[in-house]
Amino acid sequence: MSNYAIITIIIIYLAVLFFVAFLAEKKRRSKWVNNPYVYTLSLAVYCSAWTYYGSIGIAANSGINFLPIYLGPVIAAPLWIIVLRKIIRISKQHKISSIADFISLRYGNNRFLGALVTLTCLFGTLPYISLQLKAVSETFEIMANKSSYVSSTILGDSTFYVALLLAVFAAFFGTQNTDASEKHKGIIASVAFESVLKLVFFLIIGVYITFYLFDGTSDIYNQISITENFKELTTLGGVEDGFNWFFLIALSFMSIFLLPRQFQVSVLENNREKHLKKAIWLFPLYLLLFNVFVIFIAWAGKLTFGSDSNAEYYTLLLPLENDNYFLAVLVFLGGFSAVISMVVVSTVALSTMVSNNLIIPYGFLDKFIKNQPERNSKYIKNIRRISIFTIIIAAYFFYVSFSRELSLYSIGLISFVIISQLAPSFFIGLYWNRGSSKAAILGIIVGFCIAVYTLVLPFTFQAYTGTSGFIHHGLLGITALKPYALFGIDFLSPPAHAFFWSITFNLMSYLVFSLIAKGNYRERNYAEMFVDSNNFSSLQDSALVWKGEAYVQDIKNVLVRFLGEKRATRALAIFFTKYKLPQDTQLADARLINFSEKLLTGSIGSASAKILIASVVKEEQISLVEVLKILEESKENIVSNKVLLDKSNELSQLSSKLKEANEELISKDKQKDEFLDTVAHELKTPITGIRAATELLMDEDDDMPQEIKAQFLKNILQDSERLGRLIHNILDFEKLETGRLNLDLQYQDIQKTIAKAIGSISQIAAKKEVQIINSNLHAFMTSYDEDRILQVLTNLLSNAIKFCPPKVGKIEIDYRLGNELVEISVTDNGKGIPKEDHDFIFDKFYQSKDQNTRKPQGSGLGLAITKQIVEKHKGKIWAKKDVKNGAMLVFTIPFK
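Below the sequence we write its predicted structure tokens.
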């Protein structure tokens, strides 16, 4: 394929990415841009050209040794919900814009520490970017069939132009805002898009090689299993390989948190913490899919080419060998996608770090203080753009000088080992408040120097001198100082060896000097805020213990230089409103200083923000005794406020309970009055009828017809019976309430009792044409007071008849056994029980507020008496909820 065709494909592909990024920036609030799937796919920036090509090279030459680099992130993923969520929360609160800002903030906004972390990330990432450029260069040469061609000039090297195109893309979409803590929606959307493409293309070529060029996995396995070194490709070589795996897994575990590009996408670009719930399982699944065909592609390439070709590019060489240029182009674009993602995100992250932690705090602060906001914004953007181009050009020269001599795998591990030197100060600082900035600085320097000595210097000397004397004899011929066998440990691979010694000395330096050299008051306060994540919200507002003199106007002037008049005024207004301070407050306190530093951090970094704010305030040094005194006073105030708040809450709860009790008493009193009115009315009605009928009989002479006399006498009898029943109910209720009613417990047949109840109520039911069905006709003997249970059944049946519609009314009475209980139910198809009445219909003074237009007859004592009788039998009674039509009342009687 010609150079022009490949370049055209690259330009078209970059145009597509520009369009995707532009669309995402335009619709940055859309759910298609802000969702957990885009976030998780952006994390796949971890899968760079090293994954796309380098893993296959390792699998071909060393078998399963390619796995540790992916096992580390898989092990780390479940911990994201705890560790990464804490990091995200702190970063959002303080507008963190890079991992250098994060570590610097943890140790009191230490400027030198921020610069040191930036330099470490630069040295660790430049080889990684050069790895990507090496992959582009070599795959370009393979596609153009010029594998032996190497340009002698920069202008004749296609890789140089690819690097420039990547720099343009990163500069355009990575420097839209001055505030680096703002989300880069365009870049993240394009990275997610590329993550899908590179995975799909890799799976396609994996299926093609495994199932088209060969007859499946079994065929490849059977053929490779007869080769000489097959056992070495599929097993660990004893304890030594076990240690190598352990250290490489630990290395990749740390890198998934610490690589600048991973911190950028996982922390700074996170919109919502809840996206982590999806990422903790989807990202490991992505890595699994990416590695399904690695070993089979590697073995297929080894079977096809033997040792004649570069194993890292079997995915390209195999389709080209079979004249399948279309698949070769897909693989090339997949690898190119992996390169673009890594390079763009890394350079954006590094440019922010270089700008905020090197260039601005060490040279441009004075100039920024004198300039207007618009010019400052322009300067900051230009610094970052120049940084992006400088980083990529530097990576290109590293590629030209060193990368051509090394494999993709070895370059990647160099980066991992260097970046891992941030681990002690980063991870331990999150959970140990004693860690100090001096210890963090010393640990990083010691670890970095050892990593360079044991890993970088050997291949550098070999590349320039052409000899390996330094590797075999050590510094000054001292055997114990051999870079690949330091102090006699010679069984580890160079990356694992370098990682072990560098991280060991780094960790020891950090721990020892943290105990020896305590941090100042500012460090200790920020440390407490980082460590105490449970009280983070309350701590972050008062994280700065400060003593001195500061004026609001001076601080506002600094904010205006970078935020502009409108944003600065609005931010201060929000601050004063939040803390209920007058808008014309003149003197600033620790909270405003802390707030102002956070506002500036996104634009110029935490260290520069601290320096700028410090330049306009008069801060007095605070001794440890004074710090403790301030903290003690704050603690006492917090305790006092907590006690007052608790007392206030208790009083509020008591007041609420008293109010509820009072309302209940008023309601009960009102219900009692209504009950007494009802009882008086019910007593008065039959008495009035008896009196009227009696007077008529006494006043009339003997000429009154016998039929009329008989009717009057019948009315007197009915009213007398009604009066007797009412008095009987009142007396029953009084006895039940006072516990003076004794039950006559005898073994009875519950079915016969049900039949008696139906018989006693049948005439009333027949008059209303309501049907009563006895569902269970089986006999069952148990102990109960038949008269009282008969009273319960009669009450329930009477109520059911009362609320059933005439002619179509239907009542079903049933019983069943279970758990030493007889459960009896009465179900009707009446109007049902309102939801609000379910829990109260058995109360002694309760009457429903929803009884339609005509109030049902009765005193309202029936169900209250029924409940008392059932409970006297040690049973329960309730109205069943969620009955669609009518009502269902159920009661139980225990039996042994």
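The two ends are 92 Å apart (CA to CA).
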